Amino acid sequence: MSVGMAAPRAPFACDPDRSRGRLFAEPPSRTRSPFRRDCDRVIHSTAFRRLKHKTQVFVFHEGDHYRTRLSHSLEVAQIARALARMLGLDEDLTETLALAHDLGHPPFGHAGERALDKCLQAHGGFDHNAQTLRVLTSLEHRYPEFDGLNLTWEALEGIVKHNGPLTDHDGTPLGHYRDRGVPVGIRDHDEIFSLELFSFASLEAQVAAIADDIAYDAHDIDDGLRAALFAVDDLKAMPLTAAMITEIDAHYPALDQDRRGAELVRELISYLITAVFSEATKRLDAAQPKSVDDIRHHATQLIQFPAEAAEAEAGIKSFLKLHMYRHQRIMRIMGDAERIVSDLFAHYLENPSQMSSDWLEGSADDSEAARARRIGNFIAGMTDRYALIEHQRLFDSTPDLR
User: Fold this and answer.
1) What pLDDT was estimated at residue 219?
2) With contact defined as beta carbons under 8 Å apart, do 300 and 279 qualify?
3) Could you tell me which residues come within 8 angstroms of residue 126 by beta carbon, excluding any fewer than 6 positions away?
4) Most CB atoms within 10 A, among 6, 181, 258, 396?
5) pLDDT (tens digit, 9 = 90+) per residue, 213-224?
6) Do 120 and 342 meet the contact criterion of CB atoms below 8 Å apart?
7) Phi/psi at 22 (nearest 5 deg)?
8) Average pLDDT along the chain
9) Residues 290-328: pLDDT tens digits?
10) 8 A C-beta contact, residue 221 and residue 320
11) DSSP codes, 160-209
């Protein structure tokens, strides 16, 4: 099959007609599959709209053309749907997972997450994956019969386990959670609607996860070039992008720098998608899964970069870490952003009544841990702009973040 062509539905794809259902039973839609309904609910959620003004790398007022969490999520969905189509997976579920994967991120990107994690250290810390699950299962208030969006089991499983199992069969935390344990928000939900934390997620979730990596790499290069943190020729430091730049220059010797960079980004996305598809085809041919349960109980994640592409992709991340994420300008702004989040948390902890009135119902009976988590949930839902406005309201001096 040619890359880009739609494959017939694979036997190991998630089948909406065989979904394990929702925590709260609902009558089926007359016009939409369960997974399409999930996707529409994510798109119409308040948390999704807020992503428009949440930092990816650059704070919103640095320019209208840089990625936000919203534009990043749309780009992840585009890449993920392309791979799902090629592999015969359920595109609606894949899109749901791609669009929802960042709903738990606080304002100011990873700086905001670091700050909230420190603020909540005595109460289990902050984990954006667990926060996404909270948003989807309790913090959205749009429906009369339940909190959250009441998504299907397959959607929640994919959100929580898109990077692999969280525990072994005995419940021992694995990987990222080995030292700190599975976050309390995930543990609590798993007790009432088990997501089988010991198994892999569906291929739809694995595709959404690797699409996130592809989007990060390509579009952070694009934003870094736009911000003049590095130039196109600086990317010749890596063999893969050096070869692409050489080929672009041979075809278009008089191309201006903006178009030269844009062409490189397109070539990179195409290369990585093709590499993932090729590797997935090999692994699936070897594994011969007959159902989605075969995927969940396979020994390894089946959607991965091949070795050569994985090495190149790691090199891109290292380049971006050095030249972008740790650039003096970015580090200064993110340091100020951490201070804003920490200031807000400390202030609300001492003066909880100064939170938005929407967050005060039932707060009088909060324990210390519940109050801290409530404040964390409130701040995590803020956009960059609202966090700055709140800080200006409550404090005499607020960093400019420029």
Assistant:
1) 92
2) no
3) 106, 113, 116, 117, 119, 120, 376, 380
4) 181
5) 999 999 999 999
6) no
7) -120, 160
8) 93
9) 999 999 999 999 999 999 999 999 999 999 999 988 888
10) yes
11) HHTTS-SB-TT--B-GGGTTT-S-HHHHHHHHHS---TTS---HHHHHHH
Q: How confident is the model at residue 331 (pLDDT cuts 50, 70, 90)?
A: confident
- Helices 257-287 & 69-87 angle (0-180, nearest 10): 40
Task: Using the predicted structure, report yes or no on whether residue 63 has a pLDDT greater than 60.
Answer: no
Q: Is the dihedral of CA 176, 181, 186, 187 positive or negative?
A: positive
The per-residue pLDDT for 242 is: 97
**DSSP helix/strand/coil, 152:** strand
349 Ramachandran zone, left/alpha/beta (phi>0; psi -120 to 50):
alpha
Distances 100 to 9, 93, 123, 150, 373 between C-alpha atoms, Å: 23, 11, 25, 13, 21
What is the arithmetic mean of pLDDT over 202-221? 96
Spatial separation of the C-alpha atoms in residues 190 and 195, rounded to whole Å: 6
Contact 73, 102 (CB under 8 A): yes
**296-306 pLDDT per residue, tens:** 999 999 999 99
How many Å apart are CA 132 and CA 226, to the nearest integer?
30
* Nearest CA among 273, 166, 266 for reference residue 212: 273
Distance CA 252, CA 129 (A): 43
| Cα angle: 57, vertex 62, 64; to 5 degrees | 90
Fill in the DSSP letter of residue 113: H
**Residue 61 scores a pLDDT above 60:** no
